[in-house]
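Researcher: We plan to redesign the surface later, but first we want a full-length starting point. Tokens attached.
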């Protein structure tokens, strides 16, 4: 029920406020707990079972890849998978962090949907670890963001210098994972306390009791939570940018001689924001249309993220064109080789498909209000963006790691390392003729020795199994997390009652939303 109050400043103008009584808050908690405690449908477990089996098969391919693959160039699709998972799952929590900083009320129903994706960071770490063994250290003369010299002293200092890229990238990924898990834990703590106090006995109540950590809902605890979530959100955003900076430089750009692009690391980070928004849009579509939350995830959420997805798709073109025109107008031999490698060479069909899925289709559909202000429109475009993002990672990482494999073949001709007889500059400009090991490449002298593949590297069956398995594994882990963590942020829905009101304006009632502090 609503209480009718007359405003003292404007006598005679009734102010109708949404009921924020204790009974209404209890009623809301009861509704969400009822959904939470209901048994999930058989279809849920069928889908989870299929995804779990695919994940298990992907793990078998994962171990086969680790122990049976020796050539670094064969890890291109594996590196593309890791980058894709970091682009989508690691970028998804920003949908909760950004609108929360902007005090946007429409994100309250989907903030938890975005935050649960932080749990996939643990799987991303598992995928990342084999790449540390594949990447050569700095003492073999490879390009790197870090300086290298023959360090003297205890064992740890030369080790730190030799593996600087490995160490700092690992530290950044671990920090990002810890921040994401901490953000989710602080956000879900009040809801777990609700489960602890009102849910029936069972394993979920036991885990909720452990994770709620004595939450009682005091004023001090609410202030503590608000400040911690603000700090963790800001740190997560900064670490997301830094992590993608390290990944794009140390595990991508350094493999291609002559690739100098100061804008690409931030382009890589922007792709994480675009992929994260697309991931959340597709997730909330499934949750609202297949799950029981249709009345809570409505058109407002799809319209808000649809506008954001359109803006990020336009920004994708800006980043790409700014980098492209430097190489196009520079026309140095190495720059022409970069374009041949990534754009108009063997990966041209992949680039065209990526351009359509990531930019052209979102642009020419989301500009129309009927599409953008719908539920199906943003969801379909989000699927298009995710497909294009995967193609982008395949195009960039597979071609770059193919060049790494070519450089590794050159090093193998010299015993696996650079030497005074074969300095780095000479090794990069070597031309090996009539060797069956080099029938898939052509080394063009006019391109300053950059080896440009004449054909694209196609995925093997193991590559396909790993990609399908780990993407299925990410969805599987997300589904299992929803059995413990409420998908809808209950305490934020109850908090909305404090800011939601209606004002009598002449003959109409106008909805007024207050701004949080």
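Model: Full-length starting sequence:
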């Amino acid at each position: 029920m609503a209480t009718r109050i007359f405003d003292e400043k404007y006598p005679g103008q009734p102010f109708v406020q949404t009921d924020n009584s204790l009974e209404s808050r209890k009623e809301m908690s009861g509704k969400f707990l009822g959904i939470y405690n209901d048994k999930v449908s058989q279809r849920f477990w069928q889908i989870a079972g299929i995804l779990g089996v695919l994940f298990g098969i992907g793990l078998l391919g994962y171990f086969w890849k680790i122990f049976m693959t020796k050539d670094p160039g064969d890890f291109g699709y594996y590196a593309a998978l890791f980058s894709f998972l970091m682009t989508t799952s690691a970028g998804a929590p920003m949908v909760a962090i950004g609108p929360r900083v902007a005090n946007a009320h429409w994100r309250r129903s989907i903030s938890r949907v975005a935050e649960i994706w932080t749990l996939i960071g643990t799987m991303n770490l598992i995928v990342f670890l084999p790449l540390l063994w594949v990447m050569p250290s700095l003492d073999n003369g490879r390009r790197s963001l870090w300086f290298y010299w023959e360090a003297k002293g205890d064992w740890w200092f030369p080790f730190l210098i030799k593996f600087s890229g490995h160490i700092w990238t690992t530290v950044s990924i671990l920090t990002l994972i810890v921040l994401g898990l901490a953000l989710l834990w602080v956000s879900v703590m009040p809801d777990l306390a609700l489960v602890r106090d009102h849910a029936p006995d069972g394993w979920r109540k036991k885990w909720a009791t452990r994770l709620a950590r004595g939450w009682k809902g005091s004023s001090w605890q609410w202030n503590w939570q608000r400040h911690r979530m603000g700090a963790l959100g800001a740190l997560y955003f900064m670490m997301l940018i830094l992590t993608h900076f390290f990944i794009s430089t140390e595990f991508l750009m350094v493999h291609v001689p002559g690739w100098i692009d100061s804008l690409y690391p931030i382009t890589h980070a922007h792709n994480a924001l675009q992929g994260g928004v697309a991931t959340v849009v597709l997730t909330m579509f499934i949750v609202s249309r297949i799950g029981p939350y249709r009345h809570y995830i409505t058109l407002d959420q799809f319209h808000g993220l649809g506008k954001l997805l359109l803006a990020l798709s336009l920004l994708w073109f800006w980043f790409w064109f700014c980098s492209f025109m430097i190489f196009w107008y520079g026309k140095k031999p190495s720059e022409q080789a970069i374009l041949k490698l990534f754009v108009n060479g063997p990966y041209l069909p992949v680039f065209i498909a990526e351009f359509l899925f990531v930019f052209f289709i979102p642009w020419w559909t989301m500009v129309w209000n009927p599409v953008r202000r719908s539920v199906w429109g943003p969801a379909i475009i989000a699927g298009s963006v995710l497909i294009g993002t995967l193609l982008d990672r395949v195009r960039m990482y597979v071609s770059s790691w193919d060049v790494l494999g070519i450089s590794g073949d050159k090093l193998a001709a010299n015993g696996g390392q650079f030497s005074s007889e074969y300095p780095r500059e000479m090794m990069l400009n070597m031309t090996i003729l009539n060797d069956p090991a080099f029938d898939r490449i052509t080394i063009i002298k006019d391109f300053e020795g950059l080896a440009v593949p004449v054909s694209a590297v196609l995925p093997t069956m193991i590559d396909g199994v790993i990609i399908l398995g780990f993407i299925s594994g990410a969805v599987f882990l997300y589904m299992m997390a929803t059995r413990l963590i409420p998908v809808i942020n209950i305490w934020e829905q109850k908090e909305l009652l404090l800011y939601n009101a209606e004002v009598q304006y002449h003959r109409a009632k106008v909805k007024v939303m207050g701004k949080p502090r």
